[in-house]
Design brief:
The chain is 33% helix and 31% strand. The chain is an alpha+beta fold. α1 (11-19) packs across α2 (29-35) and α4 (119-128) packs across α5. It has one domain (41-145): Sandwich (Jelly Rolls). The chain contains five helices and nine strands; from the N terminus they run βααββββββαββαα. The structure holds adenosine-3',5'-cyclic-monophosphate (CMP). Adenosine-3',5'-cyclic-monophosphate is lined by residues 51, 57, 70, 82-83, 91-95, 102-104, 106, 143, 146.
Length: 147
Amino acid sequence: MRAVEFTAKDAGRVAWMLGRFELFASLSPEQLLKLAPFVVFRDYEEGEVVIEKDDLGDAFFIVYSGEVEVTKPGLLGFEKLVTRLGPGAFFGEMALLLRQPRSASVVCTGPTELFVLMAPDFTRLLEAEPEVGALVKAIAKDRLDSR
Ligand code: CMP
C-alpha cells in the first residue's frame, strides 16, 4: 500500500474528484473544498488486505478505482464472499458507526485506489453534513439487515 500525500494546491482537484461520488452529490463545491484536506489517497495491489475482520476500526474508505471483495468466515474455515464493491462504493462505515470491531474482511481483487477518511474526520463529516450521514447510515442498515 502506498499513501499519496495531497498538498494544499491539490484541494481543488480532490474536491472535484470527491464531487463525482454519489455519496457526496448533496455537497456544494465549497463544502467539497472544505472536506478535501482531510481525505487521504491510497494505492493498493492485488490481494492486499484493507480491513481484517475483528480489528478495531480507524478509517472509512471509498473506492476510486479497482475493486474490493468483502468476505466473512464461512463453513470449514473457508472465506465466504459477501459482495464486491467497485468505484463509488464505500466501506468501513460499520465499525465506526456502531463502535464495534470490523464485521468483515476487505481485500483488493486487483490494483485499487481508495480515498480514506480517518475515524475522527469521518465523525466530523457526518455531524457537519447530515445528508451524507443519512446516506451512509441507510446503506449500513441495509448491509446489517442482509446478514
Ligand atoms: P466494517 O465492519 O467497519 O468493516 C468491514 C466492512 O465490510 C463493513 O464495515 C462494511 O463496510 C462492509 N460490509 C460488511 N457487510 C457487508 C454487506 N453485507 N454488504 C456490503 N458490505 C458489507
